[in-house]
Amino acid sequence: MQEAYDSNVVITDYGNVVEDGKFYDRDLSCPSREWLAALTEKQILAVIAWHFRRDHFCEGSWISESVAEGHMAVLVDTLLEK
User: Fold this and answer.
1) Contact call for residues 29 and 19 (beta carbons, < 8 A)
2) What is the pTM of this model?
């Protein structure tokens, strides 16, 4: 975890970033490449954090939705393109 902090990829204020961006739930839960392309790196990291946090509260939804349905792959691919 320390490496994530050292690399500046930890977004502790992800909730504020998501709220300030006025993102629709549909965009957050099923992000498209087109929608993500318009976001900043920090906003994309906030969406990734949102997905991880949702897993904490939804008992495995991250595995069934974010990973299995390919949303995390789209998020990471788009972030790496920035």
Assistant:
1) no
2) 0.72
